[in-house]
Design brief:
Order of helices and strands: EHEHEHEHEHHH
Number of strands: 5
Number of helices: 7
Distance between the termini: 43 Å
Strand content: 5-15%
Shape: globular
Length: about 170
């Protein structure tokens, strides 16, 4: 039918697992694999297997949390499809980094279009993956994180506030 062959791998056991299983059945994704979470030492290999990573955030949670998967996806150098509010931290990261696409929750047509483009575009995926890794290194890499931790500790010793009003995650970004 001209469509790219997508394989779906879902790893995790969160509270939404039953809904995910129902959706997989409803969409008749016969090749979809649902597996339990992997040990932390196996996570890099699992992330490297994925050509496209899905990151989701429930509307109403922006400003309260940042899904940590965005940092793992950036570190793995993989493109992401973020389904969530465009005006939140993850939406900003994805747009600013050029590492993927942002789709508002409920916009199934756009999500399908984006997945089709990513699945069919190996060069697009590679470019977005390079952007992801470069952004991670600039903003969340080890050197940056160590400097950030030192600044936080020094400010605590001096009684100053550092990073007030910004979510921390993925290496104290």
């Amino acid at each position: 039918n001209g469509e790219a062959d997508l394989k779906v791998l879902i790893a995790g056991d969160g509270k939404g697992l039953a809904a995910v299983r129902s959706l997989v059945a409803e969409l008749r994704l016969a090749g979809a694999q649902i597996r339990p979470p992997v040990p932390l030492d196996e996570l890099p290999a699992l992330l490297a297997r994925g050509d496209i990573h899905l990151v989701c955030q429930q509307p109403g949670t922006e400003g309260l949390l940042v899904p940590s998967k965005i940092y793992s996806t950036l570190a793995a150098g993989r493109p992401s499809l973020f389904v969530g509010p465009a005006d939140c931290e993850v939406g900003r990261i994805v747009c600013e980094s050029g590492s993927g696409f942002v789709v508002e929750p409920g916009d199934v047509g756009r999500a399908a279009d984006v997945l089709g483009r990513l699945a069919a575009g190996a060069a697009l995926r590679r470019g977005m993956g390079r952007n992801a890794r470069a952004y991670y290194e600039r903003h969340f890499g080890r050197d940056r994180s160590v400097r950030r931790i030192v600044a936080i500790l020094e400010s605590a010793a001096d009684g100053r506030a550092v990073g007030k009003g910004r979510a921390f995650g993925g290496g104290f970004g």
